[in-house]
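Please fill in the sequence for the structure shown.

STRUCTURE ENCODING:
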């Protein structure tokens, strides 16, 4: 049914076939403009699914944009949350909000997050982004309709690579068991995922036979043909007593010549030119033809300017919330205290390449192999390919397979986004890896808010305590790319499971190759004096070699927050003449208890700083200090972290300010403790 008025059942808009074809073209262009304005996002999959989105939201589903919570509406669940830009333009075209607003994609507070957030925009049924979960939610929604005698229908959009997740098949089994003929699954069958062709990464075919064996009715169609899509959705509605799966054969990057069937365009945008987009004009020409009069240069520039002006407003709002000091202490904003930025993942990749010389080392990929630098294991060493196993989008299976390798004497490296590789497979890590004390090393990549615009579903903010409380687990949380390399080597030398947490975006290099580092021993960092290079302004000493200097306050931290703590120490000295002892707990487990107890006894004023849910790291520190402290003097502690909330979509440094993690904000919290007598 077309878009209706839910109160009167009057048809508000019913597009003809020709109009739908036109609307799908417009949606593709808005999609490309929004991606270019964002500077990141998924080109390939948003273009391949666009015709399905146009047909669903403008022709098939029963919904009312004016009354988005209408209980009798049809539901569409996007299990493939990374294709959110296609969802946004579909909702905009349907009238949920002005479609021009979609150019604010991935910008802080805009609502158009990197992955869908149902609390930010009307029309979104599910906050999603962790693959393999949408179909189960759709089953629950369809069951509710049956239970309450509701006539609404449920649709679930999935990817073909997503079929590698085991949870998909549990949901498929339950849908058939309960004869959910009000449920339609749609697979965007474009044949590509991040690591390459789906049948090479981890073959999921024959999908038709598999779903039929699970009791589904399966229908093939051309997912980029509007007319055929209308026909197949009509046909699906007639199927009784079983769920329907539509295998929508599509072209990844459909409609944009340079992106069609190109693996690399899974998660990137075109480069250069207007708004960083070399080929935006070419994309529009491909979609609309040379006779395009709809998206003129003036119209496109106007849309891009909406995004620019919006970001200006965000910047002004963020600036107004930041503490102001006598001078600007921000990274590389002064003539002195300069730093070089480098992603910490680079340190992991370089170390893994070296570690791979050991024939007993095995590596596993989980579809973001290049992004997390796991491919450095074999990239320059083709002979190592036999020791690399692509497991696809299947974290749980990857973990236990790696454990099986470890049981047979191998050293297994697995990795993915930290939020997925520490959470989705936590039971497998706990029971199979840790209980058996298997030699499985886990690369928890893209930790914390460093993934920025990807949003809450991809931001690992809880994994330190998740891993810490597992017996036999060893944890490294390095502060920069150099220390990441050292941490990787250290974990490799330890028998048993290990977890390495590192970020994606470039962060300050604050150590040197000859900076002291010992597994399990904290580093003490002291600000000495302003230098041309930031790192030269500090002295770094092993805790076991450090003698108290009667500092005024102690900041205990790890990972990327070490750099902010160092900058905070600089500000505290320059502004208030406060001396700060920084404890870099790069080895979170086994943690250096001696360093913490000395700080509690010698200083007594402690501030923990973490890029985690507040207390995840801080409570570990507090517990150790409280247990061992003899309280001959006062002991005061505060914690800086993310305050019991999920992350947001926005630029990484913007998010640092939003969550109060910048040095300027740390200084205010430290000063409060210092002022307590």
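FILLED IN BY: designer on duty
SEQUENCE:
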């Amino acid at each position: 049914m077309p878009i209706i008025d839910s109160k009167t059942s009057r048809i508000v808009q019913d597009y003809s076939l020709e109009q739908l074809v036109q609307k799908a073209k417009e949606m593709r262009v808005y999609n490309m403009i929004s991606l270019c304005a964002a500077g990141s996002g998924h080109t390939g999959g948003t273009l391949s699914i666009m015709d399905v989105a146009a047909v669903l939201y403008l022709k098939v589903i029963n919904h009312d944009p004016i009354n988005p919570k209408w209980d009798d509406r049809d539901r569409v669940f996007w299990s493939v949350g990374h294709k959110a830009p296609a969802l946004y333009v579909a909702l905009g075209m349907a009238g949920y909000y002005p479609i021009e607003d979609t150019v604010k994609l991935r910008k802080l507070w805009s609502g158009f997050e990197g992955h869908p957030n149902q609390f930010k925009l009307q029309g979104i049924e599910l906050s999603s982004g962790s693959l393999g979960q949408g179909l189960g939610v759709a089953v629950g929604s369809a069951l509710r309709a049956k239970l309450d005698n509701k006539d609404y229908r449920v649709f679930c959009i999935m990817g073909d690579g997503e079929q590698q997740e085991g949870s998909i098949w549990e949901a498929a089994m339950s849908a058939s068991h309960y004869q959910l003929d009000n449920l339609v699954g749609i697979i965007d069958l474009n044949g590509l995922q991040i690591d390459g062709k789906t049948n090479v990464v981890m073959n999921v075919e024959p999908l038709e036979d598999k779903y039929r064996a699970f009791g589904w009715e399966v229908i093939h169609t051309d997912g980029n043909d509007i007319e055929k899509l209308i026909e197949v959705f009509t046909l699906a509605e007639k199927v009784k007593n079983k769920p329907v799966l539509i295998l929508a054969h599509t072209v990844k990057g459909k409609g944009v010549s340079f992106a069609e069937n190109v693996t690399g365009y899974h998660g990137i945008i075109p480069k250069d030119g207007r708004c960083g987009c070399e080929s935006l004009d070419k994309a529009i020409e491909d979609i609309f033809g040379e006779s395009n009069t709809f998206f003129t240069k003036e119209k496109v520039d106007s849309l891009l300017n909406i995004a620019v002006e919006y970001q200006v407003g965000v910047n002004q709002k963020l600036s107004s919330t930041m503490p102001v000091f006598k001078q600007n202490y921000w990274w590389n904003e002064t003539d002195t205290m300069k730093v070089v930025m480098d992603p910490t993942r680079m340190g992991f990749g370089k170390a893994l390449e070296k570690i791979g010389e050991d024939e007993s080392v095995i590596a596993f990929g989980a579809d973001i192999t290049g992004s997390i630098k796991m491919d450095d294991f074999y990239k320059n060493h083709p002979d190592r390919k036999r020791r690399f196993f692509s497991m696809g989008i299947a974290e749980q299976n990857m973990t236990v397979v790696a454990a099986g390798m470890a049981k047979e004497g191998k050293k297994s490296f697995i990795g993915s986004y930290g939020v997925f590789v520490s959470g989705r497979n936590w039971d497998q890590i706990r029971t199979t890896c840790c209980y058996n004390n298997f030699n499985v090393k886990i690369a928890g990549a893209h930790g914390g808010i460093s993934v920025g615009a990807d949003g809450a579903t991809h931001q690992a903010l809880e994994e330190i305590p998740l891993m810490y409380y597992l017996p036999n687990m060893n944890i490294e949380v390095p502060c920069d790319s150099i220390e990441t390399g050292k941490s990787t080597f250290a974990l490799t030398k330890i028998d048993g499971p290990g977890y390495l947490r590192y970020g994606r975006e470039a962060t300050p290099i604050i150590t040197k190759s000859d900076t002291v580092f010992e597994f399990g021993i904290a580093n003490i960092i002291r600000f000495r004096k302003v230098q041309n290079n930031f790192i030269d302004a500090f002295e770094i000493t092993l805790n076991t070699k450090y003698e108290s200097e009667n500092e005024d306050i102690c900041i205990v931290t790890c990972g990327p927050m070490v750099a902010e703590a160092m900058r905070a120490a600089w500000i505290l000295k320059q502004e208030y003449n406060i001396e700060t002892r920084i404890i870099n707990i790069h080895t979170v487990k086994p943690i250096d208890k001696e360093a913490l107890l000395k700080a509690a006894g010698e200083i007594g004023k402690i501030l923990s700083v973490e890029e985690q849910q507040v207390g995840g790291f801080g409570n570990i520190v507090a517990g150790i200090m409280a247990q061992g402290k003899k309280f001959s003097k006062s002991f005061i502690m505060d914690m800086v972290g993310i305050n019991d909330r999920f992350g947001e979509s926005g630029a990484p440094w913007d998010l640092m300010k939003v969550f109060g993690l910048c040095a300027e904000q740390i200084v205010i919290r430290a000063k409060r403790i210092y002022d307590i007598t």
